[in-house]
């Protein structure tokens, strides 16, 4: 039999609700802006940003999926859409016949280089400018603490 739920105290619920609302509103607005400004979907932007941050602008498909916290099927579908648009390419992994590298193409690199400055401007305007450096430091510490805690919890 299930244990009695540990409901959130009013202060805990208020913190959780405001965090979720802020996250949803921020991600929604940033996603709409990147689409309007660059024609890239939020998913396109995430994939290209991660690929262009690493040497060789390539990652194994499963490593990229894990980094983005996506299921393999979602990653495969996204890569398929981006491949059709010429933003990424798949390359076979020479040491693993079943694995594949996802590589940012020159068109993908150009797309992220064109989109990033405007996107960062929106991040700054909607998020960074609302907080003091002390707030940002606290947020970074809290985020790291929650991430470390999550790593110890079953999925």
Automatic annotation (TrEMBL):
Species, as recorded: Micromonospora endophytica
Name of this protein: MarR family transcriptional regulator
GO molecular function, one term: DNA-binding transcription factor activity
Pfam families listed in its UniProt record: MarR_2
Transmembrane segments: none
InterPro entries: HTH_MarR-typ (IPR000835), MarR/SlyA-like (IPR039422), WH-like_DNA-bd_sf (IPR036388), WH_DNA-bd_sf (IPR036390)
Gene3D superfamilies documented for this protein: Winged helix-like DNA-binding domain superfamily/Winged helix DNA-binding domain (1.10.10.10)
Gene Ontology terms describing biological process: response to stress
Domain of life (superkingdom): Bacteria
């Amino acid at each position: 039999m299930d244990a009695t739920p540990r409901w959130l105290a009013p202060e805990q619920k208020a913190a959780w609700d405001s965090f979720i609302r802020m996250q949803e509103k921020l991600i929604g607005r940033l996603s709409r802006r990147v689409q309007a400004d660059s024609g890239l979907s939020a998913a396109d932007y995430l994939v290209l940003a991660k690929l262009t941050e690493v040497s060789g602008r390539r990652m194994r498909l499963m490593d990229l999926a894990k980094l983005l916290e996506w299921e393999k099927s979602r990653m495969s579908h996204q890569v398929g859409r981006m491949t059709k648009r010429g933003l990424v390419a798949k390359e076979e992994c020479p040491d693993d016949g079943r694995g594949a590298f996802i590589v940012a193409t020159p068109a993908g690199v150009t797309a992220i280089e064109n989109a990033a400055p405007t996107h960062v401007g929106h991040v700054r305007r909607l998020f960074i400018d609302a907080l003091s450096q002390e707030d940002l430091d606290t947020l970074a510490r809290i985020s790291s603490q929650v991430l470390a805690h999550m790593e110890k919890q079953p999925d």
